[in-house]
Write a structure and sequence with these properties.
- The structure is a single chain.
- The chain has 214 residues and is of the alpha+beta class.
- It has six helices and twelve strands.
- The strands form three sheets. It has a seven-stranded mixed sheet with strand order 3-2-9-10-11-8-12, covered by helices on one side. It has a three-stranded antiparallel sheet with strand order 5-6-7.
- α1 packs antiparallel against α3.
- It is globular, with a radius of gyration of 20 Å.
- The mean pLDDT is 93.
Length: 214
């Protein structure tokens, strides 16, 4: 069972979702649906939370000397007694167990399965977390904007933080030379969208935008 204190901390740091909202690209609500599936199945609410806040909450429950930052795993070897984990600073750690949670370009997964680089799925994404006073969603709502070959997620993250994620289907991908260009790219793509949605991107500092192929 999840520790009640952890649940309480996550609730206080995030947003408990009561309903999902579908909007058109002008920001007009088309449909709302009550979000009770997780409550009914697990007796726990659906909570949207900034991953950084969630990470801090989880880290606060682990002894400080058990967390070591600034290490990038480049591979591992294993035998019947444990596993040797190698890092790019020439450090090696011996452990009983290795959990590979090192992202889309996982060195652990590549060492295990030799799958090669991830394949592009024909969709580019731009996303950001900002602190703002927005009028698109009420507290407790999760939003989804559907347009032609493109869509946007809208998430309340609690404490005034808000996340938008814009995706567009594209046969090929190329990354912007800098984040100012990435921001301009998103604004040009949603130039025909409603002003409230455009304003979300306009008020986002360029350095807050993450651009990536899916």
């Amino acid at each position: 069972a999840i520790e009640p204190l952890i649940i309480s901390l996550i609730k206080n740091s995030g947003c408990e979702v009561s309903q999902s909202v579908l909007k058109n690209n002008q920001g007009v609500t088309i449909r709302t649906n009550k979000s009770t599936r997780y409550k009914d199945k697990y007796e726990l609410p659906l909570i949207t939370v900034w991953w950084w806040h969630l990470q801090q909450i989880l880290a606060s429950k682990v002894p400080e000397n058990n967390i070591h930052l600034n290490h990038r795993c480049i591979g591992f070897t294993q035998d019947d007694n444990g596993v040797d984990i190698y890092f790019d600073d020439d450090k090696k750690v011996r452990a009983d167990l290795l959990i590979g949670a090192d992202g889309i370009n996982s060195a652990v997964r590549e060492t295990l399965f030799k799958e090669g680089k991830p394949r592009y799925l024909g969709s580019m994404s731009w996303r950001a977390v900002i602190k703002c006073d927005q009028q698109l969603l009420n507290p407790g709502e999760l939003g989804f904007v559907k347009s032609d070959r493109e869509f946007m997620y809208l998430l309340n993250l609690g404490n005034g933080h808000f996340s938008w994620l814009y995706r567009q289907l594209l046969p090929d991908f190329s990354l912007s030379p800098n984040l100012d260009v990435a921001k301009s790219e998103v604004l040009s793509k949603i130039a025909h969208w409603g002003k409230p949605l455009q304003q979300l991107v306009e008020m986002t500092p360029s350095e807050r935008i993450l651009e990536a192929p899916i």
